[in-house]
What does this fold into?
Amino acid sequence: MLLTGFSTLIWLLYMIMLVLAVVALLLAATAREDAYRAADKQKKSFWVIILGIAVAVNLFVPMLFLQLAGAVASIVFMVDVRPALKAVSGGGGRRGGSSSDGPYGPYNGGR
It folds into this structure.
């Protein structure tokens, strides 16, 4: 019974790493090439190849250390490269202003 629970946990870990790699690959493939240069990051082809290898390893190679290397590459892309691409492409969340700004200007609470 303990072994079944452990294998379920390992399977869930593998699925999380696979989903992370697939999402990172899709985001890397859909970003513009010039955004990578403007953000001073590696080329788009570099990230697509690295993340494609991470997806392939997660799907076809049952070696945990290779899968962990792919997870590290996916995390680096999601935490470092993607925010830089969004900042350069103008796709950030808030573009200045305060947390009380509404769609038509600042909200002053009825003052």
